[in-house]
Prior knowledge:
- This protein is of the alpha+beta class.
- It folds into 2 domains: 2-61; 72-193, Cyclophilin-like (Cyclophilin, Beta Barrel).
- 16% of the residues lie in helices and 36% in strands.
- The chain has 4 helices and 15 strands.
- The protein has helices at 21-25, 53-61, 84-91, 95-104, and strands at 2-3, 8-12, 31-36, 40-45, 72-78, 107-112, 119-122, 137-140, 144-148, 151-154, 159-161, 164-171, 175-176, 180-181, 188-193.
- The radius of gyration is 18 Å and the shape is elongated.
Amino acid sequence: MKRLGDRALLVRRPSELRGDLQCTLASIPHAVxxxxxxxxxxxxxxxxxxxxxxxxxxxxxxxxxxxxQKTTHTLRVRYTGPDLAAVAEQVGLTEAGIVALHCGALYxxxxxxxxxxxxxxxxxxxxxxxxxxxxxxxxxxxxxxAIGGTYTGxxxxxxxxxxxxxxxxxxxxxxxxELGPLLQAGDEIRFVPEL
Length: 195
């Protein structure tokens, strides 16, 4: 466990999270929020935390309630990204083969990060696992559908980025200023090619 300032603790993420983390916070004294990453969970408190890592891990591993709002989203994509041909050449497939593989998988939101609404989606077929680009782009357009490492994702806003761009999202928008991110940890995602 590591302290993050006066009101947050960083703990190693359990290998499986089966329940609703927001409900779990209720069993941790004075916990008000959390941020999930691939390997850790940052737990935020409304006052200086007086809780052990063991207590937090016990609360996380005791989750039994199913996530109430788990949703399956269908994201329509136009597969015309600037890296589609290069990815096809790298992995020894046609561009149509890349699209079929990418759309044939069911993805799960592992965690949100990098920017508001950016979901790291696990479930990328092993044939599409590639290291990030050696030179990141200074600007990636909002809605770009990309792969990097073992993840796929969609850029909700224009930003710099180092992932391989396969296409562009047609619908729906991934972030709303009032409602927040469309995708939540645990949600399932299917990509559908727009012809």
